[in-house]
Specification:
Elements: E1 7-8, E2 14-15, H1 48-63, H2 66-76, E3 83-84, H3 86-92, H4 108-122, H5 127-135, H6 209-219, H7 226-234, H8 238-241, H9 252-270, H10 279-293, E4 298-299
Antiparallel strand pairs: 1-2, 3-4
Length: 300
């Protein structure tokens, strides 16, 4: 696949990628199995890891209500937890392992580096995409005590809209039946409180690392293109980009930008492995990108 959509930068200028300079993606070989010998995103395989993942989704689906999301957004938009640079935040992810991930139990900094390096190899001219891959999961610092010590169900895992009917394509959908919003007549119609084609920006997503990192990047004045911010905000929205659920809320800009998310998703999902990237070796390159697209210090 080659990308043909326009990339809009935060400052409003548009850059049309040169499709001839983009790789054909043939260099990245998609593995058949994950680090545990199962197919990727296999939530049914019997294993100790998957039992932990299912318990995670049970808690997530019961507790992620419209009111809870509003409360968390109000709290974290203050950005008063810390002031630090992007690479400093990357290093904090040495302390984080994602309990929702059936494919990897390595510290999250390795996942960031693996996905960024895989994209860098295939798309050498799209430096914004390399950096987007590096930072897309930085919001997982919410698990750490300094950033609230939130339970994993409030930080990681697949995201989904609240304020409308829960779609059956969501992983472990059965647990939504114990969510207080499930039988709320205001929220359980297909469109809920939203309108068809309203745009994803107007849809409230379950609270987690995606929305938090999007908030941090935008409020700190990043110059990443719109596509980069879109990837950060919706990369865990698997019901949409894998199953097409909730597409009724997308507007034309969402549909155009989705192509970049589909490109990114391949590397986000299939680059996970036990082969570690030498962080110190690649650090100078990513620090140069950070300097290009972000201020030296950000509020978190």
């Amino acid at each position: 696949m080659t990308a043909t959509v326009t990339v809009t930068h935060a400052k409003g200028d548009k850059v049309q990628p040169d499709a001839n300079k983009l790789a054909s993606n043939q260099e990245f070989a998609v593995p058949k199995n994950n680090a545990f010998g199962n197919s990727f995103r296999n939530y049914e395989a019997e294993s100790e890891r998957n039992s932990k993942v299912e318990e995670f989704y049970k808690n997530s689906h019961i507790n992620q209500t419209y009111d809870y999301v509003m409360k968390m957004r109000e709290e974290y938009k203050k950005l008063n937890r810390a002031e630090m640079g992007i690479w400093e935040c990357c290093e904090l992810l040495n302390e984080v392992v994602d309990d929702s991930d059936p494919d990897l139990d390595e510290p999250q900094i390795q996942h960031l580096l693996q996905s960024a390096e895989a994209i860098r190899k295939d798309y050498p001219n799209e430096d914004w995409l390399h950096l987007t891959a590096l930072i897309h999961d930085l919001g997982k610092i919410l698990i750490l005590p300094k950033f609230g010590g939130l339970p994993q169900w409030a930080v990681v895992g697949d995201t989904f809209p609240v304020g409308c009917r829960f779609d059956e394509s969501n992983v472990h959908y059965k647990y939504f039946k114990d969510n207080p919003d499930f039988n709320n007549p205001k929220y359980n119609p297909k469109y809920g409180i939203y309108k068809e084609g309203c745009g994803l920006d107007n849809v409230l997503m379950s609270w987690g690392h995606d929305d938090y990192m999007y908030m941090v990047a935008k409020e700190n004045g990043t110059t990443l293109p719109h596509a980069g911010l879109f990837i950060i905000r919706y990369h865990s929205f698997y019901p949409l980009h894998k199953h097409g659920a909730y597409a009724q809320f997308m507007n034309e800009e969402d549909k155009a930008t989705m192509e970049w998310l589909q490109i990114f998703n391949k590397y986000d999902l299939y680059s996970k492995s036990k082969v570690r990237v030498d962080a110190e070796k690649v650090k100078p390159y990513y620090e140069s990108l950070i300097k290009k697209y972000f201020p030296e210090k950000l509020k978190w």
